[in-house]
Amino acid sequence: MTLESDVSDLWRRYEAGLSADGTTADDEAVLDAFLAALEAGEVRAAEKTGADVTTWEANEWVKQGVLLNFGLRATEPHEYGGVTYYDVVSLQETADLAERGTRNTPDGTVIRRGAHLGSDCIMMSPSFVNMGAYVGDGALVDSCDTVGSCAQIGAGVKLGANTLIGGVLEPVEDAPVVIEPGASLGAGCRVTSGFRVGANSIVGENTLLTPRIPVYDLVEETVFYGHLPAERRAFTRMVESSVGDHDLFEGGAYKPAVVATEVERETIEATRREDTLRE
To answer: What are the chain's domains?
Structure first.
């Protein structure tokens, strides 16, 4: 039996009515082994199947495993840092961070069980990485950042302060938010609903990226929904809404959009200068 088949079997029993009260020691062992595999980066909630950012696909059985850890565990008291809290899983042990070159600042860096945090990462407080999320080597998770369930953060990604990376669990076939390697998001960005950011793109502060907002790509001169191509500089602009002029208000109506251009050399240089602060 493989971990995937064990999780799939447990999922079938769960859909047939299995609850936390009916789980066995073997069932709990499967749940624990699954969390350990997530934390080690051995399994991931999504994987890239081609060369383009649009080719990411969900691993349904992995998302099922995450859901099972919520559905088949009872809420219990846990202790961490002298604080009692109540949850279905404990927080992740962090004693091995130093040997991996990863650091986190005190008073508020939270890594939930089942999250992968790579080597040479930085987590500033307060920040939170949820179950099923994957944070690649050398990534920066800045203050007031949230990395949601199953989100995929590539190597060398920079998440500016107060950035929200949305999570997605259901439906299980939907791919989560993906930020590919080398991308940089400015402070206050929001990336939700399975949106995908291509490798080495630079997103301006306070930009909202969601499949419902169009991306006007000036490089290919087309409009994308749900993803930002690789190696773009993106920022928010307001465009005229279909509502247009209306008797209830003056000056017309506008809606947010994202404009994407080529990454300018000056922008690349500025991003590289930030790297020196992390040495």
So the answer is: 3-276 (2.160.10.10)
